[in-house]
Each structure stands twice: as C-alpha cells, then as structure tokens.
Amino acid sequence: MATGVDPITVVVVDDHPMFRAGLKTLVEEADGLALVGEAESGEAAAAVCGEVVPDVVLMDIKMPGGSGVEATRAIARQLPNVAVLMLTMLEDDTAVFAAMRAGARGYILKGSAPQDIIRAIRTVAAGEVIFGAALANRMGHFFTAGRAGEAHPFPDLTTRERDVLDQISAGHSNSTIADSLGLSEKTVRKNVSNIFAKLLVADRASAIAKARDAGLGEQAT
Q1: 23, 77, 105, 153: which could form a disulfide with 124 (CB 3.0–4.6 Å)?
Q2: 0.70 cut: is pTM over it?
C-alpha cells in the first residue's frame, strides 16, 4: 500500500494493445501515480507483479492466456498487499463477483472517465474497496445464502443443476457425472441442457469457461 509522498505504483494488464497503451498514458500523466509494468495476459500479469510488486494492478477481467480472475487469485495468494482493480466492458456481475471472491478490491468499467479510473486506483491503493450497486446486491445474496449453506455463483440453477455444473467445470464426462451423482446419463444430459440455457452458453466448453471464471471446478493446491 502506498504511504507518504511515494507515488502509487501501477501495473496495467489488458490484451488489447491500444487500450493498454491508453491506460499506460493515463497512469503516466496522472499526479501521484507511477507506471511500473504491463502485461497482455493473466499469466504474464502474475509474473510481472511478482517482479515489481506494485501497489495496484489494473486488470482486464477476460483475456486469453489466463483470465483476470485466475490472475487475481494468484496475485492475492502470493502478494496480499497488492490491490487488484478489475476492468470490465460490461457490468457482468457474475464475472465481477467471481473476481471479488478471488481477492480483487473492486472494479471499474472500461468506458469510465479518466478521472474516475484514477480515483478508483487511489481508492483501492488506500485499502478501500470500490464496486457498484449490482455487485453489492449480489454480495448480499451470496452471504445470506452462505448462512443457509446454499452459496453458489449461479443462483438461478436448481440444486441438481448446481451439482452437475460443479462436475462439468471439473472436466468430468456425462457418464462420470452420472456415476458420481447416482443419476442416469439421460437425466444428466437434460440437466446439462438446462444449464446451457440458464448460463446463456451454446456448448460445454463455454459453460466450463464461465463456471471457472466464477471459481468453480478448480482443484485445491
């Protein structure tokens, strides 16, 4: 965390070169901020942060080569004093909520005014959090559900569909899921179809990606 008159050191992470360049310029020209690194993927972001240990990481939430959520989880585990501020095109509360669960201090929309992005950087560098009303509502739902033992990032799914999605996100086949949950493969297929419809995805790979962005299916280390 930045203290005294020292500048707030920032790493910028985004897979789009032009947008990343714009963020770099914004940071470089802002009073009290100092750009110390950049990366174009989540995997590279974790490596750069390990080298320079910034005060704040401006992290794109969705990137090839390791998502921003996965990178945030790694950074929060290895460098707990580094504040991660998520960047997102849309207020996708599922993905942003997953990022907050992974250890992010807040998020800001990519279309925000420059002064708002700078203000958000300073806010998380000071140890505070920043998020919108939609995420606040979702966090309230999560902790309320958690007290009842029902916490899950996709509240529209039934209990059975949640169990199946957990298995899908771990990479299990329908036959393995059927054996694990004591179901017929036909029942599993029906649940998989329902899950695709509720998650607004077209195939298994997309469902896995969305589930893993929400923190499901990852093996403990």
Answers
A1: 105
A2: no
